[in-house]
Structure prediction request, 322 residues.
Amino acid sequence: MSDIADRVKKIVVEHLGVDEDKVVEAASFIDDLGADSLDTVELVMAFEEEFGIEIPDDAAETIQTVGDAVNFIKGAV
Amino acid sequence: MFDLTGKCALVTGASGGIGGAIAEALHKAGATVALSGTREAPLQELAAKLGERAHVVTANLGDAESLAALPTAAAEAMGGLDILVNNAGITRDNLFMRMSDDEWAQVLDVNLSSVFKLSRGVLRGMMKARWGRIINITSVVGATGNPGQGNYAAAKAGVVGMSKSLAYEVASRGITVNCVAPGFIATAMTEKLNDEQKAKISGQIPSGRMGTPEEIAAAVLYLASPEAGYVTGATLHVNGGMAMV
Prediction:
């Protein structure tokens, strides 16, 4: 896994309190990892801070899975 | 009784009678305060009176840029922002049939939209801290209505509905959102009334007198305290019994 993927995974594990092995690329934050809508807002905030990027609202809506987040961040940093 | 040591509070409209008393009460309980308002002189005067832990952050809530900059400016001055008291408000009274679009818009802008924008602006820090207090000063007329104040009553009632919605969203993050609804309070504004007008007002109040700014501040202090952590989405009416809602 790339550095970005590792850092994303760490944030997700910490924030949602889920097992590390569940945080796979295809895992949906809401359907698989038990996040509610406010959790997803907070995750986006955490990604923004960790990577020093700005994630606009329309982009945030497309980030549904761990893989979506990693891909978006790869394109943004 | 309530200890706010280490907490940072932004009070809007702190140059007014009620806002000043709120800032003073929070400060006395140990909080660092940021005093906001449009006029700098009275804010500086209050800050000087309070001494340490008091900062002046001027802002015009009717101005979009000034409004957007306020949460950051206050947080930078204090080193954080745990408590937001949306106290600033204006009136543009007129009979409904005579009320201009402008009178309506100005009051809705400052008394409702600015509360939304400021609250949104402080949420990120509170969410991260898993602690926060948003206290909105509304008015008895938001619940009862008042002739000549269609705009003001609409804005104040709007703040109540907005506060409840936000309270739902952020309760699980340790953030409470409440309102304090003053009745008739003795301030510079009510001093202009003559004795006859004052007697008439007092006659409608079971307590037989106007309230004091300190009595509003005490309600705000309670809602800001750690002890009030289980109170959210509530409106605390402080009106001497003039409307029991």
